[in-house]
UniProtKB/TrEMBL annotation:
Keyword Cytoplasm: yes
Entry keyword annotation includes Lipoprotein: no
Pfam families, per the entry: PrmA
Protein family per UniProt: Belongs to the methyltransferase superfamily. PrmA family.
Chemical reaction(s) catalysed: L-lysyl-[protein] + 3 S-adenosyl-L-methionine = N(6),N(6),N(6)-trimethyl-L-lysyl-[protein] + 3 S-adenosyl-L-homocysteine + 3 H(+)
EC number annotated for this UniProt entry: 2.1.1.-
GO biological process, one term: methylation
Protein name: Ribosomal protein L11 methyltransferase
Its job: Methylates ribosomal protein L11.
Main localization category: cytoplasm
SUPFAM superfamilies found in the cross-reference section: S-adenosyl-L-methionine-dependent methyltransferases
Gene3D superfamilies named among the record's database cross-references: Vaccinia Virus protein VP39 (3.40.50.150)
Length: 309
């Protein structure tokens, strides 16, 4: 498998707005992760020896599989960038390069550093050194070909939500597992049973490997290939889906079937403009919205079924 690296170099005064909007374009293709290049961001002081050279320009980089749809994706991306320039004035240039799978899986590693989430959780790449402080929970992650590094706002918000609503001994379902990062967080926060589902067989293998890397006992977790919750015949105290707005809206039709009576559903991958659609559908299906959190134009919503079943 080969990959196409699409690097969008930005020329706009409001750097953060431009990065957010262009990253959103990539996420509309189903990419859950992008690389952000920022000349003004230095690596953390303690990790300076491993630091890479700073980029010369602001850029957002996404990776497309080189398949029969690749050319169409590139054309659509270019059209969307042109619309952004006309509507807001964000000027950009796009550069493409072809990468082998091995090169793709290594390319972004120089951008992935330990990331602290909240007061006590740290997401650490397996290839980085980190000195754990007392009371910290460290999640060891090697995403490989899967997405889920802990650096994206939706992942951060999901982990914060899990920390808020998971009780020790709860059962946990992760829809769209990716690297397994949310399952690992749930396990280390006390979940007694964990099930993960992803439609990508490679992601399932990576998530399984990451669970074992974090010393999660194989007896308490299962990760399978599947579409949303098709084939799931158990119920869970807490279910999380960090996918996309469209996939969340589809999932809502069946998610209550896999929740316990007081089960909580946390959904993410939702851009701010789509929040109202998700919230309205949740309410129409009998969900009580118990929490919403936002970061960098991304929203996470938590709800609990409030009607008797």
């Amino acid at each position: 498998m080969k990959w196409i690296e699409a690097k969008v170099v930005i020329d706009f005064d409001d750097r953060q707005l431009a990065v957010d909007l262009i990253a959103n374009l990539f996420h509309e293709f189903g990419l859950q992760g992008v690389v952000i290049e920022d000349p003004e961001i230095d690596p953390e002081e303690d990790w300076g020896e491993d630091a890479v050279d700073l980029p010369e320009q602001n850029a957002v980089i996404g990776y497309f599989r080189e398949d029969d749809k690749a050319a169409k994706r590139c054309r659509i991306l270019e059209q969307k960038l042109q619309r952004l320039e006309k509507a807001i004035g964000i000027k950009s240039r796009i550069f493409y390069s072809q990468m082998d799978e091995a090169d793709w899986s290594e390319a972004w590693k120089s951008y992935f550093w330990p990331e602290k989430i909240g007061a006590a959780i740290v997401v650490k790449p397996t290839w980085r050194e980190y000195s754990r402080s007392a009371g910290e929970i460290v999640l060891e992650i090697d995403p490989g070909m899967a997405f889920g590094t802990g650096t994206h706002p939706t992942t951060t918000l999901c982990i914060e939500m899990i920390a808020s609503y998971l009780a020790k001994g709860d059962s946990f379902l992760d829809v769209g597992t990716g690297s397994g990062i949310l399952m690992i967080a749930a396990a280390k926060l006390g979940a007694a049973k964990l099930v993960g589902i992803d439609n990508d067989e490679e992601a399932v293998k990576i998530a399984h490997r990451n669970m074992l890397q974090n010393s999660i006992e194989s007896e308490i977790f299962k990760i399978t290939t599947g579409n949303l919750v098709d084939g799931v015949d158990e119920q869970f105290d807490l279910a999380v889906a960090n996918i996309s707005s469209a996939a969340v809206l589809e999932l809502l039709d069946s998610i209550s079937d896999v929740l316990t009576q007081k089960g909580i559903f946390i959904c993410a991958g939702i851009v701010e403009k789509n929040k109202i659609d998700v919230v309205q559908k949740m309410k129409s299906l009998g969900f009580e919205i118990i929490d919403t959190r936002a970061k960098e134009d991304w929203v996470v919503v938590a709800g609990r079924i409030r009607v008797s079943r």
